[in-house]
Amino acid sequence: MARNAEKAMTTLARWRAAQVQEAGGQRERRPYLASECNDLPQAEKWRLQIVREIAKKVAQIQNAGLGEFRIRDLNDEINKLMREKRHWEVQIKSLGGPDHARVGPRMLDQDGKEVPGNRGYKYFGAAKDLPGVRELFEQEPPPPARRTRADLMRDVDADYYGYRDDDDGLLLPLEKNAEKHAIARAVEEWKRNKEQNKDQDLPEEENIYPEDPDDKRIEDDEEMPEKPPAPTLVAVPSQKDIEEALLRRKKQELLERYGCLDVKLENS
């Protein structure tokens, strides 16, 4: 790489030095306040200069090896230039120029996302990975929506309470089969324990369900058939039978009425 002295001797450097000498011997400085500039082309020139400085510093801040303090300083300088650029854009608009704030592009990072910030302060490049900055912009997952009582009751139906569990005819046979196996295992275990304790002098097991001879429920249970009798079918009269019954009833009423009249006439 060429030394600084060699750079100064280049054609561009000599031409720029000649331009500065022609302009008055010193380089023109940007006004401290944007409101001090009343020339639209000059205002556009200073705004463009600020944009170039911002681009230069944004390129520098991408290097994470600069150190935390240098990165923070660069980020502060970029934010300061951003505020100054907005002041020049307002001045340009007041002088009749274009509205750069409305038509200008958004500040995007290297991933194409809008630069994160808080209350106007933006973080660029490696500044987004500084301690305390990443946690500042991590979005917590939204809490789950709380379901109301109406939402909960909307899913409650007859199946929820188990009203129709036996309608398919599959559960009852399985329960009966499981009950038979459970009873058989219990009886087998009882017999096995009884055989093992046969040689030992153990007191006889007390019957916790003694039979009461005066209890008529035992006789009723013995007399009850295993299966209920088949329901008797009631003959339903047809339309013709109903008409005949109505006709007989009408005749009987007429006989009773006029029979009483004949008896009264005879007596008179």
From TrEMBL:
InterPro entries: Helix_hairpin_bin_sf (IPR029012), Isy1 (IPR009360), Isy1_sf (IPR037200)
Subcellular location: Nucleus
Domain of life of the native organism: Eukaryota
GO cellular component: nucleus
Residue ranges the record marks as coiled coil: none
Record keywords: Nucleus
Bias (Acidic residues) ranges: 202-213
GO terms for biological process, alphabetical: generation of catalytic spliceosome for second transesterification step
Predominant location category: nucleus
Location of the region described as Disordered in the Swiss-Prot/TrEMBL record: 189-239
Regions of compositional bias (Basic and acidic residues) in chain numbering: 189-201
Entry keyword ATP-binding: no
PANTHER family to which the protein is assigned, alphabetical: PRE-MRNA-SPLICING FACTOR ISY1
Family: Belongs to the ISY1 family.
The protein's name in its UniProt record: Pre-mRNA-splicing factor ISY1 homolog
Protein source organism: Papilio xuthus
UniProt lineage: Eukaryota, Metazoa, Ecdysozoa, Arthropoda, Hexapoda
